[in-house]
Structures are given as structure tokens and as C-alpha cells.
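Listing 4. Sequential folding, example run.
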Amino acid sequence: MNYNKLPNEKVLNETIENIKSRGINVILVDNRNDALEKVKSLIPKNSEVYNGSSTTLHEIGFVDYLDNNEHGWNNLHEKILKEKDQAKQTELRRKNVTAEYFLGSVNAIAKTGELVSCDASGSRVTAYPFAAKNLILVSGINKITSSLLNAIKRVREYAYPLEDERAKKAYGFSSTIGKWVIIEREIFKDRTTLILVKEKLGL
């Protein structure tokens, strides 16, 4: 099964409507540059901002933009990097998932509207269900699958093997499928926004 192809217009439109019906805001943009500009527009100055590890956020330029400190946000990630004590770093990561604005991506999207995310430790996905005040997710439309079952399969058969290889190169050890979050419905109005990009992005 090809887990990285771009869906046709009909499937894309159906997916967007199904996601919206689950209480999640959807913003469709043409490319990664537009995605970054949309992220900038959604976060007010002086807001607390934290993000999970995400290839997609790197690809749209968000990580570099956050690092340049010209955004006017309270960059919680920067404070973690300044802390050299490993135990204190871990504690800061736990606290920072409650940021005003948490950014990340998803590993798969079901055409039926569910958003599927997974990571090894849970340090990223733990913010998704409730902890963060506002959740902004960015994803390429290549992550859309035909069903929730195939979204889960995409993680196991496509995203995880790629992440495992990335982890080996970056950290010298394997990754694992650890903690899952499936967003089936958002009951808090305007809390969760998905920026869908008409490009292949992420794993």
C-alpha cells in the first residue's frame, strides 16, 4: 500500500469535512511557506509557545523561525535548552506541555476524520488530548488514509520504520512505538486547529 501519495480533490474535501464535523478547525494551504505564515497569524505576541519534535515543523521552517527570536512569543523550548541538568530538563518538558500554544504534527489522518499520532515516550502526544490550551497541528495531505485502521497501519508500516532509521542516525539507538493518541472529537471549541498542506511533508 502506498502510504505517501497525495489524495485527489474529492477525497481531500471529504476528509476536511469529516475532520470539521469532529470539532476540529481545518485550514487548507497550498504549500509549506503558506503553512508557516498561517501559524504565525494564529499565535498572538507574548503567548507561551512550545512544540513537539516534528519533521513537518522543520520542513515548513517553523523550528528555524522559533529559534531566531524575532517572533515576540515566550519560547518555552529555548528555556529547556538553556537548562543543562537532565532531570530538570525532563521536568520542564512535563510542565511545558500545558503551554498556551502547543505545535506538532500527526502521523496519519483517516478520511473519516480521526487524527492519529504516536511517539516513543509520549513527550509530544501528551499535549494533544488536553494539556495544551491551544493545539496547532500541521500536516501534509500525504498522510490521509482511507480509514482509521489504515491510519494506524500507516504508523506501523510506514512512519515508524522511517522514524526508527532517523533515531538511529540522530541518537545512536532505535525508536519504538510507545504512546498513541487518536483525536476522534474535540469538545472544546476552537482549541484544536489542523493546518493541511497540499504537499508531501513529514514521515
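-- end of first protein; second protein begins --
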Amino acid sequence: MVEESQVISRYQAAGQEHVLKHLDTLSVGEKETFLKQLDSIKVEDLSSLIESALADQKEDDKDDDDNITPFSKHVGRSTDKAYSALAYEKGIEVIARSEVAALVLAGGQGTRLGFEGPKGMYDIGLSSGRCTLFQLLAERLKKLQQLASDHIDDSSTGSKTSCICPFYIMTSPINHEQTITFFKENDYFGLSEGNVLFFQQGMLPCMTNEGKIIMETASKIAMAPDGNGGIYPSLQNSGMFDDMSDRGIKYLHVFSIDNALTKIADPAFIGYCIMQDSDCGNKVVWKTGPHEKVGVIAEKAGKPCIVEYSEITTEMSERTGRDGRLLFGAGNICNHFYTLDFLRDKVMPNLANLYHIARKKIPYFDKATQTTIKPEVNNGIKLESFIFDIFPLSERMGVLDALRDQEFAPVKNAPGSSTDSPDTARAYLSKQAQQWVLEAGGNLTGDLDSLCEISPLTSYGGEGLEEIVQGKDVNCPFSF
């Protein structure tokens, strides 16, 4: 039971007592629900969060082009086969020792796709029926754990020990229960229930430009998600960070749900970052052209950061190096590596400095009409953060350039769209399957434009296909 007097005292002390104006007019049930919401908000922190965000905004306003420079450290390339092989071996070793965890940002809905539900539950239309983004990820992880377990060999007994790579799923209040139910109904897609963990993205109150909390109704504060950068406080507040520490996790792979080609807990990426002694890492794909609208890894004042395409000039975007490659070309795809030490020692102590001001149209409760008004102009602010906001805290940023057609097939736009749609994702997956067959020594016949598929349970990254296809004709379309 929430102690009413304590809640009232907290909001009065924080200068937000106006939210209590209608408290005595509420029914018993409404009052109890409202007090629970009030109690869950760290109202004491709001003032400092706003001050920090405003100060950060002023610093951003002072930034000029001269302060933005290309990323100066070494950028690894997945096309370097020899180094990639070494990195893969290093990565698979730490996965085999159960020192790696995977985390997907899955708080969004499939609204742009015309889908009412969590985006991870969206069916991209593969012929095998292995269609949802969640299933693709879970089955890739299951296969990867089998591969890693094969690396563990007790020489005294000859037995194999199974490794564990826990799968953390960050949801949001709007899709949390639905996501959990989906995994339960599908038996966690073959993963152990105890190693699939769900936690919610944080929410923060919406506020006026003067820093006062906005009421959505007489008994409800207007709330908004705190951005994908909310992963950091959410990891801490949910207890998931402690869970990782208790499990002995040393490395974390974090990525967005909307990429159908994500190599979950990618051994080569993890191994590369470890071999570079990186505290934080970013997997990128090189821009298709200087004016592709995507953020890039760069530096501000000598510190690594993501620079949005709108922040660099035409001259900067077209600038190339001696090798002819774009200097501002490392496109960000929300695919990141962290050491837990970096999160504990650098990120967690700096959570209060992560937020930005976003000016929005926020529905508010109108006392005169006793209704919720939807404004036509911006009337307030939301505090939000981005997952890459912590990059400047890194002392040893690792960047790996991956092949776009092998690792990046975003599913964002509705079916029929020419880019970043379920159709383009299926095409990428099909071409990848065909390439794996060729690399394994198979011969492709039939309709090469047809939809081909290799299950994640058959192969994680093209390995193990020789005994299936080597020296054989493989007729397209195929599925195995």
C-alpha cells in the first residue's frame, strides 16, 4: 500500500505539488492507481535531469563543423578474412565460457508496418514459416550456443559442456506482457526459459517548458518512453545488470529488433573488440553514397560519437581518404558491444547526464472543460536519450565494418516499399542463403530470383553446409 502522506511530501518538496490538485476528487480506485503512479516516479531527480539536458543542449548549439572530425582510430573490416577468423575464434571461446550475453531493444510497435503488436512478432513472410524477427534471433542464438559448446572439450572425459548465452529482451509498457506471452506460447523457440529475461524500458513524465509535470487526465501524469538510451538506467533499475554480474557475464552484445540479418552475439564482432581491447564497440556498414541519410561514427572534440547526417555539411559528407572511401562513411546500425566493466565504471555513474530535450505536442488535462486536449503546436518537453550517447565515455572504441548484404536488412517500412521493408529483408536473406550454398561448394540451379532460405537451426553463419550441398546441384527455390 502506497503511503499517501509520503507521496504528497515528496511532490511538495520537488515543487510539483500541482499534480495533487484533484487528488481529493478521485474515487478510491482512481486514487490508489494514481498514487501508485506518483510513487513510481523519481520526482526528486527531475529538476537535475532537466538542468543537465538544457546544459547539454547549449553545448550542442555551440558545436561547429570544425569540432566534428572523422573517426581517427583503426576500423576493422569483415572482409579481412584472416583477422576475422582469429576474431571469430576468440569470440567463440568467450561465448563457450558463458561470458557473453545478448540484448535486443524490442520496445517498439509495428505501426509503420501496418502491424498492431510488438515489432519482434512481425511476420516477414519466409516460406518455411520461421517468419518473426524474434524467432530468427532466438534460433540463431540456439545454434550459436551449440557451436560454442562444441568448443568445450574436457580432455579427461571427452565430454561436452553446454554453454549459456542469456538473452535479455528490453520491452516497453505497451508491449511487455504481449512479448512475454508470445515467447511462452512458442516455448521460447528452443531456448531455456530461465535464460530468456524480460525487462521494461523506462518512462519519464512529460513537462512544460518551465519544468512542471503535465497531467494527461485528472488522475494520470503524461508519460513518455525515455528513448533507446533508457537501456542503461533500465538495466540498473530492473536488476538485470546485477543478474549479468551474478552470471559472470563480461561482454554484452546489444542491437535493435528491426534487422532481419542481425548475427546475435556475433563471435567475430565480440572477438574483434576483445582483441582490440575495446571497452565499447560499434558494428557499422559503409554508406552507399555520401548523401545516404544515416548517422555515422565520428569524433567531437576528440571523443567518439554518432553524428547525424543533418549535422555534417555537404563537403564533409563527400570527403574521401587516400583509399577513396568516405571519411564520414561508417553508418550506424544500432549494433553495439560493451564490457560490463565499462557499463559499471563509466556509464552507470553518469546516467543523469544522458538526457536531451525534445519539444513535443503533449496531450494535457484542461481544468475548465475537464477533458484531455490534444495541442496543435509544441507545448512541452520530453526527456529522451539515445543508446550511443555514452560513446564519448569510451576510451577504447572499437569499430568493425560489416558487409551490408550479409548483416543489415532493416524491417521498418510497410510491405511494398522499395527500401527497408519485409520484401527487401526477404531478398537479402534469400541472397545470403544462395551465397552460403556457393561457398559450401554447391551449384545453384533453377530460378535464382526465387525465395531461398536456410534455417538458423541449420547454420548460424554459413558453416556446416558442406555435407549438405558440396558437389551437388541445389535447385532454387530451396529451404533447409
